[in-house]
Amino acid sequence: MTQLKNSLPLDDLRVVELGSLLAGPFCGQLLGDFGAEVIKVEDPGVGDPMRQWGREKPYGTSLWWPVVARNKKSVTADLRTQKGQDLIRKLISKADILIENFRPGTLEKWGLGPEQLWKINPGLIITRVTGFGQTGPYSERAGFGSIGEAMGGIRYITGDHDRPPARTGVSLGDSLAATFATLGTLVALHYRARTGKGQVVDSAIYEAVLALTESLIPEWQIAGYQRERTGATLPNVAPSNVYPTHDGEMILIAANQDGVFRRLATAMGRPDLADDARYSTHSARGSNMDELDGLIATWTNTLNADDLLETLHSGGVPCGRIFRAKDMMSDPHFAAREAIVKLQHPDLGDFAMQNVFPRLSESPGEVRHVGPTLGQHNQEIYQALLGLNDDEMSSLSAAGVI
Question: Homologous superfamily of 14-212+339-398 in CATH?
Answer without folding.
Answer: Crotonobetainyl-coa:carnitine coa-transferase; domain 1 (3.40.50.10540)
